[in-house]
Amino acid sequence: MAKQEEPHKIKNWGLQEYKIKPGSIRYTAPELFDRYKLLGQVISHPNFENNEQILTSIIETIDDRIITTISGSKYELIGEPLEEFKQCYIRTYGSYDNEKPLFPSYNLQRR
Predict the structure, then answer these.
(1) pTM (global) more than 0.85
(2) What 8-state DSSP symbol labels residue 6?
(3) Is the pLDDT of residue 111 over 50?
């Protein structure tokens, strides 16, 4: 499989919590419990139509507007997030910055 050179673009985005209850799936690594996936409309992705709604694999890192998933795929956040996500984020963190839409503390490695 060729290495992805440029991040895929995703708009109308948000995060979806991915929960696995300990013991519900045998042999699940603990770092996969209570993680997040990126959802939104993807643009210029070779496997999807433009504006197709997708749900990515689990997020591994967040670097400003670039999201990397555990599968190694990279996504660039375009524009504003879904309003519902944005309001929830503001309630939780107190503010929202469009330049850095997800705080670095939102990296959910072994929280």
Answers:
(1) no
(2) S
(3) no
